[in-house]
């Protein structure tokens, strides 16, 4: 990720999906369990838990319905070595601060993914001797936090180092094999034709190692982009790159493709509004893409004259917005309707007739993958976690029509 995302000066050095629907269980600090689907991990926005004025995750969850967070970034220690550290300065082994954030999220029924890499600092793929050693370092993170998802953010300058990328891709493959069900995303730079030469070399490395993550996501910003139309064009072109690299058909490529945007003003002065996010979201859902995320929740709030003077900020978006406006698009992608300041009437479910109809759908009940209900004299099966999403209201919604009952 670019400078304002990975390091805003010295202080920020401390920092840091056809969607799968496999249910993963997380354990909260209180011992309670909650099930999240892959769709939630695919929708998790980035959050720097130690820098850039971290917002309160619980407040965001209450305001938007968001359940998953992409915590960033784990790097190699600034002093050298092959062990994981937040921002290169805070060893994962002795961490309590990020663990506290994770406990808060899980206590409210949510979960986290951890992102490694980013734009600044030394990456473990650069510091560790080989894929096995790199994987062992990342396994410490997976084990420490009981992770069900991890993100490999592979970009400049690391992805220009072929040995480092070989280590990172090899480590991702090892983690995937040793942690069944682990959701693995790989995020890289976006360009007008999808991704650049180094990004394409990374894809070829994955192909040579026989590694297929849940998705390969591109970041279509900081590259001469101008709103949503240029981003969806890049996503279309990246789909062609995935097809040609892996021999996939178009649908399979979209099922392994993701979008990672930047809300508001980018590092290079591009602007992406709420309307742009909606356009890209519509593209992602209509093409059955696997991931929709953005950088970052730290920036998902209105700037004040004191903290922004027409520049890119790590703590606000530099566009007119309400707090957590952009997070609501992640919630929509996960398949849940976010709270609105203007409540809308809840449709009254059709009474359940006798015979083979399932229990009537309820607007207040929480449903997870494969739960069945009846609505409008049809039976419906949940494709992922959902609440207050009317069966049949959207072609790309969370409910699968099982026919009349």
Kindly summarize this structure in a few lines:
The protein is of the alpha/beta class and 405 residues long.
Low-confidence residue ranges: 6-35, 340-354
Could you tell me how far the N terminus lies from the C terminus, measured between alpha carbons in angstroms? 50 Å
What is the count of DSSP helices, taking H or I runs of 4+ residues? 12
Query: What's the gyration radius in Å?
Result: 21 Å
Textual characterization of the structure:
It contains 12 helices and 19 strands. Strand 5 and strand 6 form a beta hairpin. It is globular, with a radius of gyration of 21 Å. Residues 6-35 and 340-354 have low confidence and may be disordered. With 405 residues, the protein is α/β, with parallel strands linked by helices. Helix 6 crosses helix 7 (162-178), helix 8 runs parallel beside helix 9 and helix 9 packs parallel to helix 11 (274-286). Strands 3, 4, 5, 6, 7, 8, 9, 10, 11 and 14 form a 10-stranded mixed β-sheet that branches. Strands 16-17-19 form a 3-stranded antiparallel β-sheet, with no helix packed on it. Helix content is 31%, strand content 20%.
């Amino acid at each position: 990720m670019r400078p304002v995302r990975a390091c805003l000066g010295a202080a920020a050095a401390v920092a840091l999906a056809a969607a799968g629907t496999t249910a993963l269980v997380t354990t909260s600090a209180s011992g309670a369990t909650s099930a999240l689907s892959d769709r939630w991990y695919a929708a998790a926005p980035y959050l720097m838990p130690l820098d850039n004025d971290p917002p309160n995750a619980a407040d965001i969850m209450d305001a938007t319905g968001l359940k998953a967070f992409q915590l960033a970034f784990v790097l190699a220690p600034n002093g050298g070595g092959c062990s994981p550290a937040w921002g290169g300065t805070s060893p994962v082994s002795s961490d309590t601060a990020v663990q506290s954030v994770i406990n808060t999220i899980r206590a409210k029924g949510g979960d986290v993914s951890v992102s490694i890499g980013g734009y600044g600092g030394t990456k473990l793929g650069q510091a560790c001797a080989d894929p096995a050693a790199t994987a062992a370092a990342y396994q410490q993170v997976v084990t420490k936090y009981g992770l069900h998802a991890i993100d490999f953010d592979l970009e400049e300058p690391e992805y220009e180092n072929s040995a480092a990328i070989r280590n990172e891709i090899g480590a991702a493959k090892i983690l995937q094999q040793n942690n069944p069900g682990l959701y693995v995303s790989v995020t890289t730079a976006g360009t007008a034709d999808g991704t650049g030469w180094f990004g394409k070399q990374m894809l070829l490395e994955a192909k040579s190692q026989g590694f297929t993550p849940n998705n390969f996501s591109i970041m279509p910003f900081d590259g001469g982009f101008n709103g949503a139309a240029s981003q969806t064009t890049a996503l279309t072109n990246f789909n062609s790159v995935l097809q040609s690299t892996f021999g996939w058909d178009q649908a399979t490529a979209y099922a392994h493709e993701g979008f990672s945007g930047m809300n508001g003003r980018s590092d290079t002065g591009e602007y992406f509004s709420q309307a742009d996010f909606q356009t890209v979201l519509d593209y992602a859902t209509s093409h059955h893409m696997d991931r929709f995320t953005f950088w970052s929740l730290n920036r998902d709030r209105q700037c004040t004259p004191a903290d922004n003077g027409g520049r890119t900020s790590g703590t606000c978006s530099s566009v007119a917005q309400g707090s957590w406006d952009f997070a609501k698009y992640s919630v929509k992608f996960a398949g849940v309707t976010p709270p609105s300041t203007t409540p809308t009437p809840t449709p009254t479910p059709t009474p359940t007739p006798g015979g083979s109809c399932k229990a009537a759908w309820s607007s207040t009940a929480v449903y997870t993958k494969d739960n069945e209900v009846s609505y409008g004299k049809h039976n419906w099966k949940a494709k992922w976690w959902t609440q207050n999403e009317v069966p049949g209201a959207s072609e790309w919604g969370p409910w699968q029509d099982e026919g009349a009952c």
